[in-house]
Amino acid sequence: MEDAIGLRKSAKALEESFFAKENEKLLARLREESARKQKRKVLAEALNIDDEKVLSHLVDLDLSPEAIVAFSLVPLVEVAWADGQIQPKERDAILRAAEERGVTPESVNHELLENWLHARPDRRLLEAWRQYTTGLLDELDSDERSLMRARVLGNARRIAEAAGGFLGLGSISEAEKAMLEALESTFG
What we know:
- The protein is an all-alpha fold.
- The chain has one domain.
- It contains 8 helices and no strands.
- It has helices at 2-47, 52-60, 65-81, 88-100, 108-118, 123-138, 142-162, 174-186.
């Protein structure tokens, strides 16, 4: 009888151990799924993309949200500085774009962006952006590259147009046109 009680206790301990390990696996999977959803949300906001296939691919590439936010904002800052100064409307448009991408005023990313808007970033920032972009594009299929190109260049063009020309009738300076062309060349 004592052997039967001992066997039942051992079976119960084995069962509890098995289910504890299974629960740990399930919990880890739930955490991973939650992290993927959060990363997908941040990427969707940062790039203004709702294409699930593209977002899944970007999540699979394990891109950091901070890198993607920088990827989307550096071209805007570079276009705004192209003519040597940032116009108030360009600044406002960049800050709005940053907020749409989840960059909140109290964040370090916002502070960095403010620094870029007050003093022109070092040229190495644009070179780092180009290197990152080239590497990212190598990982994407042609549809994904086209989508990225359209989003980034479209947003940069909106910044260039933000200052407007005479009476706000959109004119893009020659320096801004040159920067847009330089950005476009990065996309091949």
